[in-house]
Amino acid sequence: MGENTDIKPENANAELKPENTNEEIKPEGTNVDGPNVGNVTSPERAREDGGTSNKLKYPVLMVHGMGFRDNKLLCYWGRIPKAIQKEVGCDVYFGLQDSNGAAETNGEYLAERIDKLCAEHGIEKFNVIAHSKGGQDMRYAITSLQRSNRVASLTTINTPHNGSKTVDLLLKVPAWPVKVGCKVCDLWFMIIGDKKPDTYKCIKLFETKNAKAFNDANPDVPGIYYQSYGFTCKTFYGDIFMWFPNLFVRLIEGENDGLLTVDAVRWTNFRGHFHSTTNRGISHCDEVDMRRMRFTRKPPKNEFEISDITDFYRNVVRELAEKGF
Questions:
Q1: pLDDT tens digits for 282-301?
Q2: Is residue 258 left, alpha or beta, with left meaning phi > 0 and alpha meaning psi from -120 to 50?
Q3: Is residue 258 one of the residues assigned to a domain?
Q4: The total number of structural domains that make up the chain
Q5: Which residue among 246, 256, 302, 311 is least packed, with the fewest CB closer than 10 Å?
Q6: Structural domain containing residue 163
Q7: Is 10 among the domain residues?
Q8: pTM of the predicted model over 0.70
């Protein structure tokens, strides 16, 4: 299964300027690093001049969550990269880390990838948007691997920063059947491209005590703008793909997105708890546009309601641009 290739900008022709020049980032050339894929020019790097005055100073790095890879056939982020490009006219890169790699090994990969991208494209820093466990992978790269000088902001979308009480309960069973099941998962993920899958270590990170230990070892770094967002389904049957885990987590912890509650994902500068404009809510899959379509045409009544997930991401990058990132 092919990996995403960074999507090269279109209709542009100048290079990035150093941070201390106070000049805007100019669009780059028209080379394409990879084949056209779906709605995006190429799945590893994307850019399009959206004709907007809200320009990001730094490009975006999108870091996927657990269980999926960035690949050429199916973009993890759906229509979202294209929406970001149109909103703020910036390059969009992808993490390309393992699906089920531990935070440590995925963090190492992300650190190396950031170094490579910065060297190859003259990039100073990134605005990182990370979904689910991708947020922990990125925090490890920033803090433990000292890549804070390469990150301007980190936005986490339903990342289990505080762990899951449901996972605490599930892991009370004997360890050996869990480890066997995780090894089977590792074999599958190696087949589809993972280099160092470690599903058991991923799951253990979601225990609340281990999440706390991770947080203690990887505190926020001064100088980086951190923000976090939470989403939930209003009913357990809101997403047909996630109704069973949603019901299970709901019985133990309460309202969730099919995997995680708002308390589990709350982190620095928590920006709020979001729903759709209907009774369906927003699931863990919806957060990355798995359905590739708007939720409804019903307009939002307040800032915490969303009718199309791409509108949410447009607002995120617009605000980052307004803050000077």
A1: 999 999 999 999 999 999 99
A2: left
A3: yes
A4: 1
A5: 302
A6: 19-322
A7: no
A8: yes
